[in-house]
UniProtKB/TrEMBL annotation:
GO terms for biological process: nucleus organization. Belongs to the CRWN family. Keywords: Coiled coil, Nucleus. The lineage of its organism: Eukaryota, Viridiplantae, Streptophyta, Embryophyta, Tracheophyta. This is Protein CROWDED NUCLEI 1. It is found in: Nucleus lamina.
Amino acid sequence: MFTPQKLWPLTPRSATGQKNGSSLPGPGSVTNQISPTNGEVLAKGKAVTFLEGDGVMNQESLTERASKLENEFEFSNFLCNSGCAFCGSFELFEYQYNMGLLLIEKKEWAVKYEELRQALAETTDTLKREQTAHSSALSEVEKREENLKKSTGRSTYKLHRKLEKALREMRSEYAEIKFNADSKLAEANALVTSVEEKSLEVEAKFHAADAKLAEVSRKSSEIERKLHELEAQENALRRERSFFTTEREAHDTALSKQREDLREWERKLQEAEERLADSRRLLNQREERANENDRILKEKQNDLEELRKKIEISNSTLKNKEDDISSRLASIALKEKASSYLTSIHSIILVLEAGDVKKRLEEKEKQLLELEEKLNTREKVEIQKLVDEHKSILTEKQKEFELEMEQRRKEHDDQLKNKLVEVEKKEAEIAHLEEKLKKREQAIEKKSEKVREKELDFDSKLKDFRGREKVKDELENLKAESETLQLRLNEERQQLKVTEEERIELARLQSELKQEIDKYRFQSEELMKEADDLKEAKEKFEKEWEELDDKRAEIKKEQEEVLEQQRSLEKLRHSEEERLRNEKLEIQQYVQRELEALKLAKDSFAASMEHEKSILAEKSQSEKSQLTHDFEMRKQELEAEMRRKQEEIETHLHEKEKTFEQEREMELNNINYLREVARREMEEMKLERLRIEKEKLEISQNKKHVEAQQHEMKKDIEELVGLSQKLKDQREQFIKERERFIAFAEKQKNCEACGETIREFVLSDLHSLTELENLEAPPLPRVAENYLKEAVEGTVERVWC
């Protein structure tokens, strides 16, 4: 005896369960087909022990397995709802372990099913053999009965009647047995067909279970693979995030360093621009001073020209006065000659009036002398003042000019030295920056392959670009301020033109001086007119003439000195003008070079410097311009490359985000699909559990029905045992009567009339009777055992299904 175990299906079988339920015969049908008198008791004899020994244990194991599966599926449903990947993998491991156990049990049940199917085939073969033997025995009995009817005649009529009764009873019994056997065969065939159908269903369910197991294993492997992929992605994302944070920090530090370097560079540019502005301011101041010097020189030239004009005017006036005096002297001489003639006539009148005239003339001469002395002293004082003032102004201006030139030279030398030092420093800084830029370019090239910058980096870069734009705006503002300064310089130059008004005032003063000179001339003419009337004024006029000659000589000397000073001043002015022009041209060229080379070039005041310094300055300027140009080009290239890499990183990040979103959506869809599948399987398991409960109820009902059938089978077995005992007794009586009939036939062999017929009967029919004697009753208990085995197999199949 073995204890059959329940094989739980892996897939819901609501439809199959209904089919199986419909195909199985109910308890009512079984009771309708089976009766206590139809000989079916033998087929149920050995099912009692199978059901009595294993019914309770199967029910307990079924309940335990149902509770376990309920707990497992509730746990799996909880895990599916919670979405815990680790718990899901643990539940899948337990599920796979249970599935492995179920597969082992399935293999065992398959082996047991094959054994039972082979036993059923053997029992059906034995049943068919027994039926053929039984039918052949019945035909032989009928033949022997006919032969006995022919042979016995009247003497054996009573025996024949008894035998007929016995045969009828036996036929009725055999007919009942045959009917029961046929019905049982039909039932067995139906059971075989149902068992085969159920076996096919079970095989289909096994295949479905295998497919479901394969699907579950595939899904579990996919889930595990996806879990591993998700874990790998999470680890990769974490590593990338950590790497990204470190790279972002490094990039931030590099950007901060770059910003500091750019700020230093901007500060240095501002300092250089301030220096350029200072140099421009100094140049403008120097230009202003040169313009002032030019203006002062022009004013002095104008003053000198005015003085020369005044001296020429005074010389012309003196010449006119000399001509007037000479004409007057001639007229006086003529008058004297005429008066000599008249003196004799007017001697008396003159003598009388001589005293008064002399007094008047003396007074007038005194007044004239006083006026001449005053005029002479005044002229001398004014001329000396003017000459002293001009000399002092020229000496002061020469000293100031020499000091300014020395200061300019020193300043130019200092500026050139400072600029050379600055250029060297800037060249070193530019070389250091180039090295830094090369290193940063290498670092950026290495980092650009790995860095996946996000919105913060983009914002920082945008801020940096905005800062650079601000710096550019500040540079433009500085340019605008320089332009405003140039406009101011132009305004100041225009203000210098306002000095023309002062020149107009000087012209007005010169006109006033001319008016005073005219007044002086008018007074001198009046005095000459008064001197014309005086005779004695000749000597005084001669003296005045001599004095005037002396004054003229002095004035000529002074004029020559003034001309020499003017020539020297003009020479100095021309030399200073040429030098200032040269310096101005050099300064303008220097400023232009500085503006063209980002306001960081050198001063070009090297016309008066040595040729080597100019060569060094030009070389440094060209190198600096080249470096600045290369730096700007490299800066633009780096900015373009940074923009390109930024765009590439943005596109790569967008693509990564899209792929990640798609993968996440696919994973979510797969998880939702698996949740839906698990939910459906849970629902199917619930339905399966309800169906199992229904089957449990059916099994309990079948158990009760089997117990009732077992009781009936016991009764039928007892009746069959009694019937078999009766058949044995009748067979013994029949053998005894046969022996008596054979003895009677032996006795009648010697009879002449009936001896031949009796011999023929003995030779033919009694031989068959001996064979019938050797025959035994059919082994009805074995048939019952076979039927019971079939019934047990049917119940087992029902339990399986």
